Please model this.
Amino acid sequence: MNFLAIETSCDETSVAIFTEALEVRAHLVASQTDLHARFRGVVPEVAARAHLQRLLPLIDEALRTAGLRVNDIGCVAVLNTPGLVGALLVGVSAAKMLAVALEVPLVAANHLEAHIYACRLAAGRDIFPCVGLVVSGGHTSLFRCRSALDFELLGGTIDDAAGEAFDKVAALLGLGFPGGPAVEREARGGDPTAHAFPRAFWHDDRLSFSFSGLKTAVLYALHGKNVAEGPPPPPGKARADLAASFQQAVIDVLVAKCRQALRRTGLERLAVGGGVAANQTLRVQLEKMARECSAELFIPPLTLCTDNAAMAAIAVEKWRRGDFAPLDLDAEPTYLPRRP
Ligand code: KG4
Ligand code: ZN
Model:
């Protein structure tokens, strides 16, 4: 049985085709980075229009890549929450029309749960129960994942998401968009101990995150306390030190909160997903912490960390249960933790 999955929650249009045995037969991602770069961030209307233009050609290409015809699709899956509502609407509308036209079931899945499911997909074996950390441009959330479809929110950010902080600091440093990979590259030449940036909730029992103060601290280090914003610094050691110290502050908190969540839940597996999980320094430091805690760490390869439709393979779990979406399915911009 072939599933066709659609992801359009933010600035990547993505289509995947996989089987119920989780064999991925096609996986395409059309990134919009070039469209948003000059705005230094994702512009929702630009994103929605680009999905509208790109989605059907991408579906066509995915079918050709898999060597399938549209009638070979037995189920349509879509990530309908959370995300930019205009962007989500494009994917949800397309998925509903396809399901109706093909007379096959429609399955709706949650984008955050799908980010964790990317770990299951990459591992090729069960990873549940586990602690799940979703660390992306829109979210920094810790979950107790009892199973693929039973998530309890343990804590999250009270302001910016970690990826958002990477993007904003990249803009302050004049490093371009998207910020994560640019800050990571810049940080390689810097000293992570050069600046003692704040680490919110670091030694606190709460499984909470806050990154907006850190962003302001980078601004102050750059321009002093009385300047709102100024020109970016020139390339060189000082800029690299700021990038490295900022990155280390984010990583220290993410690693500490994962350690606390493992201790608190008694779970022995940690699954990490979302765009920031592509960061190599974070991956290495999570590995070290997991070893110290005798926990098993699951992080997908880079293509499954950032937004993608293959992670919508979580729809297979819903399909097995007959948990189909109604045809009046809506796009939900915010995430509401499910009550088990
Ligand atoms: O999961 P994702 O593709 O989209 C959302 O669901 O938000 O995550 C995008 C975020 C962006 O903020 C981007 O700057 C960040 O992930 N990111 C990184 C890296 N690659 C992407 N952050 C740090 N280091 C990276 N290598
Ligand atoms: Zn995402």
Remarks:
- The chain has two domains: 2-115+307-320, 126-303.
- The mean pLDDT is 95.
- The longest strand covers residues 73-81.
